[in-house]
Amino acid sequence: MRRATGASVHSDCSPQKSNKHNLLSYLLCLLGLRYGPTMAHDDSWLTTGEAARILGSTRQHVVDLCNRGLLPHSLINRHRRIRREDLNAFAAGAQRMTRDQQRSFRLAMAVAGHLVTDPEGTKDAARAHLDSLGPGSIRRRGGKWRERWLALLDGPLDELLTALTADTVDSRELRQNSPFIGVLTEAERTAVLQTMERPRQEHP
Fold first, then answer.
1. Which residue has the higher pLDDT, 55 or 110?
2. End-to-end C-alpha distance for the chain, whole angstroms
3. Is residue 39 within 8 Å of 45, Cβ to Cβ?
4. SS3 45
5. Domain match, 125 and 88 both
6. Is 57 in the same domain as 126?
């Protein structure tokens, strides 16, 4: 197939010609000519679902990344498509945790211990924190995270533990909006944070 140039769309993909098949074949022909094989057929372009599986996240998370301008994408027939090379670049940049992400990861591991030994009590504490958030606070922090956590708290314990402790882009953002406030005592928090290495200082 060729990229569309001028009248080639009408000559190669005219409705009269495609009527031998159906309207769908006409639209597919237009799509192939307009965007070429690299867009319509090349596996270097990924759907949001495929990108989510590669990142180990949800499809909605990938859509959010696209909407926030963090993940380059193109629209094909109103569907988002992501270049594999762009996704790989994004994933590579997200592989190393920031210090703040490391901190929330360590604290989440400690919370996971409470979930294993006292699942219902720990879940109830998280639900109580989510219920205490006012509408303004929910808007500022993003209501979607509240809904995600509520769904996880109501689901199987293993899925909650995985979401809490996984090293994926999605889990990192979940931990940054953790509802497990007050689950750890001050002594536990201090002990956990003391295990983190101090950042190295550059010497002239």
1. 110
2. 60
3. yes
4. strand
5. no
6. no
User: Residue 83 has what DSSP assignment?
Assistant: E
Integer Cα distance of 18 and 16 in angstroms: 6
What pTM did the predictor assign?
0.56
Distance CA 50, CA 58 (A): 10
Domain of 76, CATH number, reads: 1.10.1660
- Does residue 90 sit in the same domain as residue 114? no
Alpha carbon separation from 110 to 67, 119, 155, 180 (Å, rounded): 33, 13, 20, 11
Same domain, 115 and 181: yes
Determine the angle formed by the axes of helices 143-154 and 119-132, rounding to 10 degrees: 160
Structural domain of 108: 99-193
Report d(CA 52, CA 56) in Å as an integer.
Answer: 6
C-alpha 189, offset from chain centre: 28
Confidence of residue 173 (pLDDT cuts 50, 70, 90): confident
- Residues 150-181 as b/e (b if ≥16 CB within 10 A, e otherwise) read eebbeeeeeebbebbebebbbbbbbbeebbbe
State pLDDT tens for residues 21-67. Answer: 445 554 555 554 444 444 444 568 889 998 888 787 888 989 988 99
Q: Edge-to-edge, what's the strand order for the sheet holding 79-83? A: 45-46, 79-83, 74-76
